[in-house]
Write the structure tokens for this entry.
Amino acid sequence: MAVHRSLVVFAIIAAIASATSFATEFIVGGDKGWDLGVDYLKWPKDKQFFVGDTLVFHYEAGYHNVYKVNGTDYQNCNVPTNRSLGSFTGNDTITLATSGNKWYICGISGHCQGGQRLQITVLESAPISAPSAAPILCAKVTIFQILLGIILVL
């Protein structure tokens, strides 16, 4: 009986895991990182960004920084006067918490104008791709059904 319960619990956990999408970590600028001379208009073109993904900005601290700005400030390279809106460590991670357009600039004088700025579009959620019919069925299972199954097994 204990083995049967363990198998059912394992099956439920496997079903939940197969229906879950995993976030992606993007190193901004790839191997070159967040630096002058990188084409940040081209870099995001072959990527899709989803809520929950993260952007990692690698750069030499003190020589660059990262500010999240609005579209107007991005276009005009306006650096916020509030330093608390910036990141300065050289290894900054930003989680994409909401969908929509996002804009980032380097606040060092002349860097944004020199092309060190990034604009991306974040989508609500990644599509679920299923290699077989089983994950599709699992994706339709509600949390209530899962909890009910666990209670009935125990």
